[in-house]
Amino acid sequence: MSELLLALSVAAAAHKGQIRKGSGEPYINHLIEVSHLLSEHVDAIDVEVLQAAVLHDILEDTSVSREELLLQFGSKVLAYVEALTDDKTLPLSQRRDQQLSHITGESKAVKLIKLADLCSNVSSIPPSWSETKTADYLDWTHQVASMCFDANEDLANKFMSRYDASLLAAQARFGNAQSGGEI
Ligand SMILES: Nc1nc2c(ncn2[C@@H]2O[C@H](COP(=O)(O)OP(=O)(O)O)[C@@H](OP(=O)(O)OP(=O)(O)O)[C@H]2O)c(=O)[nH]1
């Protein structure tokens, strides 16, 4: 318990001032949701996996270093977080290619966190996104999530129900393929 609270406290300080694109909520809410999804759907989950879930964006989006993570949380948590960290200097299409080529070979723990992250993201589509951007994002999250489905059936079902709901919401908003739209 205290280990998880330490991760939440470090993440809250590091992501201070950052907001979610979809809802405008504080970014920490997303990290809480991802760890909550894991604790709800995965039996006997290791605390290191929950800590890494809370810290999964910290190297990508804040100034916290690998050395600090190693010192405070150890090599296992650092390895999980590194596996979930994209190289933000690359263009989006290359980052996506890298994710697709790596995810199949990742550990069960990394796939669980990725699946929970995508569960959160798929039901938080920013209202400012265009039809094309929304359709592309839904397709992309489905591709990556599918590669993680073997990690946990319950979480896979959760992703699919949220994906279906978001697809319906997008179709209602933009119109579906029969009416000439892209979704
Ligand atoms: N769906 C969603 N995404 C949000 C939200 N707030 C932040 N994000 C982040 O934004 C990225 C998706 O937006 P992009 O495709 O980069 O598009 P944008 O910069 O034009 O907004 C994802 O990161 P990523 O590193 O590209 O992908 P991922 O591996 O985290 O999924 C996701 O983590 C939100 O409220 N909803």
UniProtKB/TrEMBL annotation:
Keywords: Hydrolase. Pfam families: HD_4. InterPro entries: HD/PDEase_dom (IPR003607), MESH1 (IPR052194). The keyword Hydrolase applies. Residues 23-131 form the HD/PDEase domain. GO terms for molecular function: guanosine-3',5'-bis(diphosphate) 3'-diphosphatase activity. SMART domains: HDc. The keyword Ion transport does not apply. Its EC number is 3.1.7.2. It is an enzyme of class 3 (hydrolase). This is Guanosine-3',5'-bis(Diphosphate) 3'-pyrophosphohydrolase. It comes from Marinagarivorans cellulosilyticus.
